[in-house]
Amino acid sequence: MNNLYIRISLRFLILILVQVLLLNNIHFLGNLNPYAYIIFILLLPFETPRAVLLILAFALGLSVDVFSNSLGMHAAACVFAAFFRPGVMRLITSRKEYEPGVEPSITDLGFQWFFMYTLILTGLHHFMLFLLEVFRFSDFFSTLWHSLQNTIFTVFVIILSQYIFYHKK
Amino acid sequence: MRNLFNFFWRHSIILLFILLETFSIILVINNNEYQKSVTFAWTNEQTGKIHSSYNSLWEYFNLKKINKELAAENARYRSLSPSAFLKTDTVVLFKKDTLYRQQYQILSAHVISNTTNISANYLQLDKGKLQGVDKDMAVISPSGVVGIVVNASQNFSWVMSLINKETRISARVKKNGQIGTIAWEGGSYLNAALKDIPTHVRIARGDTIVTSGYSHIFPQGEIIGIIKDVEIKPGEHFYNISVRLGVDFNSLALVYVIKNLLREEQIKLEEAAKNE
Hints:
heterodimer; A: globular; B: alpha+beta; Thrombin, subunit H
């Protein structure tokens, strides 16, 4: 149990550092940045209480915000995604039962499940993030298009990281 | 109360979500210049719309009052506007009723055309017979004598200017009552000549010249000008006096037309005496 908390805390710190120091500076094709730090929200154990989930997401987003000079935007987007996480989990059923104490992972639940899960939550997060960045509804469809492009990029990075780290383990 | 707590407990996740989102968005707005400016512009616009629609509603309900106020204001401005004033007023200011009988009627008029640079200068006024202006009335301005009405149509009158070579006006040196004649001899519209003042009379620069009232046209004592230059030519019995006119004919706009109500009587008496 202690092992789990330490792992989550370490992951929290490392993901923020990676995001802020590395991923924020990619600027792929000019304006695409993988916001892979939300993998932290994705990988929290199944039975995490919703309130804890929201507060952790807020803390995560706020931490990234502090370093990337966009106070509030990532926090709002993370809370938004975290709020919908249980609903998304219910929406996409797996052949396997969700087991308590287990983190959602590509090895346990299969590529298809994990891909859908990541895609929907990343999409929600990015949509909220870019909406706040543009901060108006008049360019709604260009905002949507931009967040879609970025979502694909982020999902790609997240899936890749899953294969890299979980195979090593 | 318990129900309320129950409600909050049941919806605690949504409330927490809303709380965190609200807090985040407040952070966004307060800490990011662009978002702050957009928010400010938007709220400004919305409050502006609300204010203006409230205002138009208020104005609609107060139209009657506003109309009344506007009408009153219009009337006030009209009464202040000199042109409107002059067009509507007909007659009459009193002048000199020491006999308990009005001798002079005064009408205000606007100069609508004027010349100063030829030898026969005339003015046109915007008042005519309908407003009571007729031939042989005096025209003065606040700064001095202007001329004599020589012709009047229904709504306009034609004034022979003081700076017309034909004009002769009976004048008086104010300090000693010496009578002379003012005539303009061409040249500058600022000066005229005072003639027929004999050389034994003491005259100096700066003396005031006024109308004598002998012509039955001008009232007595209207300012014509002040003496600018005095000289005596050898062998002559009269001074050559140059008078600086009181009126600046080039900027003349507002004048008064003076009607001598007793002129008929005076002329009749004069002619009766001549015929005898």
